[in-house]
Design brief:
Chitinase A, domain 3, 5-stranded mixed β-sheet, 5 helices, 6-stranded mixed β-sheet, Nucleotidyltransferase, domain 5, about 280 residues, flat, 2 domains, alpha+beta
Length: about 280
């Protein structure tokens, strides 16, 4: 068995799509028998999954990862164990002991399930999932593992999400880009036990609606397009092999229209946030 870990200076690197190295461990009979460090060569999310597949990786251990990258790994039969931090060697040993808990896709505040619709040359469209680390964010909680309860509502009071309803706090690394910018900024200086209410503009949440992110293609050119319906979320690939989550906006007998805007793009959001713990 081969286990790959997103790697930087001995530790688990916290953003799968931005990792410059992987440490690859050879495992036999539940024990590590050897390890080597390989470069990612600046690949994007989807290409990284392909690289790991070419290396014969069975398990990926990482910090933050988005839904699109998770889907790309699943397509290649690679087991994911996300949410790890600290020493890479210790994370592998914890995995082998069955003690490492997989948080799943944790690099966006609001991911949906999706299908794969093959490749589509749409390199001009950006990945609207995890936006990367929020450079310049200041606060005592930045870089630390935070656990928060929250309730999210639109301006009319309609609730769109709540960790309280699920009974489990949300866990993330503050400032690592796993959350939308306004949420990270709100938590950056909170005290444990503190509760705040914040209002986020689209720029602080999922951005404005980009009309250029809506595009059409012939169904015959997109493998799997004939089996999806309007409203479904699917994953395409850009020119660099990176998965892009898109929604089916329209479809007729010959053409299909995709919307790469996040489902929350253009919306003002309100969050009731309770900081449960900081590590």
């Amino acid at each position: 068995m081969k286990i790959a870990v997103t790697y930087e200076n001995g530790n688990v690197f916290q953003h799968f799509g931005h990792t410059e190295q992987f440490k690859v461990y050879d495992v036999e009979d539940g024990a590590v028998t050897g390890a080597q460090i390989i470069d990612s060569n600046g690949s994007g999310h989807g290409a990284l999954a392909g690289l790991l597949g070419e290396q014969g990786i069975d398990v990926l251990i990482c910090g933050g990862i988005g839904g699109g990258a998770q889907h790309a790994l699943e397509e290649r039969g690679i087991e994911l164990c996300a949410g790890a931090e600290g020493s890479a060697d210790a994370a592998v040993e914890a995995y082998l002991r069955g003690e490492l808990v997989n948080t799943g896709a944790n690099c966006d505040h609001h991911h949906g399930e999706g299908h794969s619709c093959g490749e589509h040359g749409c390199g001009e469209h950006e990945d609207h999932g995890c936006g990367g680390c929020h450079a310049g964010l200041q606060g005592k909680n930045v870089g630390k593992k935070c656990r928060t309860h929250y309730r999210g509502t639109f301006n009319d009071g309609t609730q769109f999400d709540s960790s309280y309803d699920r009974g489990e706090p949300l866990e993330f690394i503050c400032g690592a880009g796993q959350m939308i910018p306004g949420y990270d900024a709100a938590v950056a200086d909170m005290e444990v036990g503190q509760i705040i209410d914040v209002h986020l503009t689209p720029a602080e949440a999922y951005g404005e609606v980009d009309p250029n992110a809506v595009f059409s293609a012939e169904i015959a050119r997109i493998p799997g397009a004939e089996s999806v319906s309007v409203g479904d979320q699917v994953f395409l690939q850009d020119a660099y092999g990176r998965p892009i989550p898109v929604r089916i906006a329209a479809k007729d007998d010959t053409m299909i229209t995709f919307d790469a805007n996040h489902e929350m793009a253009g919306k003002e959001l309100n969050f009731h946030i309770e900081l449960v713990s900081v590590e």
